[in-house]
Amino acid sequence: MGSKYRVFYTLPLLFALNTAGFAAGSISIVPGPDAAEELQEALITAEPGSMISLAEGTFEFSDGLSLDVPGVTIRGAGMDKTVLSFGDQKAGGEGFLITSDNVTLEDFAVVNTRGDGIKSKGADQISYRRIRVEWTGGPDEKNGAYGIYPVESKNVLVEDSLVRGASDAGIYVGQSENIVVRNSTAAYNVAGIEIENSKHADVYGNTVTHNTGGILVFDLPNLPVMGGHSVRVFENQVIDNDTPNFAPAGNIVGMVAKGTGIMVMANRNVHVFDNVLKNNGTVHVLIATYPNDFDDDTYVPHPRAVLVRDNSYGDGGGEPDGEVGKIISDVTGTPVPDIVWDGVVPLTEWITWTSGDDRIYVNEADGTTFANLRMIQNTLYPWSTSPDRDISDYEGTLPEPDMVSLPQLQVQ
């Protein structure tokens, strides 16, 4: 992006015109032998406020696309009508890379990319609306890692979108802040939706089904941004997550057991409520400490201030999978309880963990099953291996994070 764009885009007058709907220019592109070249040229030469319209049909690409001009909208005719196909992609780490602010992507599909589907990096006010990203051959470790992939970004919106077949996470938001993921579908991915090393996120109204794991809220060590917190996961349908894990060897999500509904690991102030969970074979809700060795002195591997409440639980836990499933079911038996906490806390805080803002709270309807695996106690006292199943010991509440407010939602 040239410096003239950076300066011009900051002018208050232009910003006012853009938000009022006056575009700097409109470019229309139709499928054809020159469409790939025409689209990349349009992405390079676009001015802030431009609209790039993609007609109905299939566009074929052998190289990845990129955009670094702010204030651009790219709009197709519908996620099942305008298809950007990368089945013959030979270059580029992803299908589409966005590195500029105030960009809106809507009403088109990106399919069969060699790497990630659509990645936005360092983008403020990035919106994915009615976007489909798919690997049409189904689950395969050779598929791209991420479908919709905002990272190191602020004010992120993903809504009414669909991702299938990602070998890591279908919808992944990492090292970002102020996030809304809503009313979308993630299916046949390793992880359906993943919020990683991020803060202030609302994940709601989504359907997460036939993945290995449904919704993951993680914090990992040795990343530029850590200390994820203030995440709300609510009003989602987390059902039938039954796809065998197909992550490439060495990938952190390779540890996720088939049939995991919602997993919270090493994150703080996470609220899980009003979700429907059923037919997740390993466990509906898992609260866990990061299980691997690490050399990051700033990293806190334990989940803290987690509240699980008012969810609806159907059948589940009857087919615990893999190493994680075996660790849990060896302690609890089968079916695995609806909610499982590994019980791992810092040794220095073990005695005081039952009080204070860092503890785990569970407020669910009568009949909901629970187990604290008490893995710290079992390590110190190996002759005592019984889990704590008394859910009433974990009653309580925490202040709920504020609803996430995004600039792009204020001007609709």
**Number of distinct helices:** 6
Please give the largest β-sheet: 20 strands, parallel
Strand content: 35-45%
Distance between the termini: 27 Å
Helical proportion, percent range: 10-25%
Total beta-strand segments: 31
Summarize the structure.
The chain has helices at residues 3-9, 12-19, 35-45, 322-332, 375-380, 407-410, and strands at residues 25-29, 50-54, 57-60, 63-67, 73-75, 82-85, 91-98, 103-111, 116-121, 124-134, 146-151, 154-159, 162-164, 169-174, 177-182, 185-187, 191-196, 199-204, 207-209, 213-218, 229-234, 237-239, 260-265, 268-273, 276-278, 283-288, 304-309, 312-313, 339-341, 360-363, 370-372.
Structure description:
It is a single chain. This protein has 412 residues and is mainly beta. The protein has a domain at 135-410. It contains six helices and 31 strands. It has helices at 3-9, 12-19, 35-45, 322-332, 375-380, 407-410; strands spanning 25-29, 50-54, 57-60, 63-67, 73-75, 82-85, 91-98, 103-111, 116-121, 124-134, 146-151, 154-159, 162-164, 169-174, 177-182, 185-187, 191-196, 199-204, 207-209, 213-218, 229-234, 237-239, 260-265, 268-273, 276-278, 283-288, 304-309, 312-313, 339-341, 360-363, 370-372. Helix 3 (35-45) links the parallel strand 1 and strand 2.
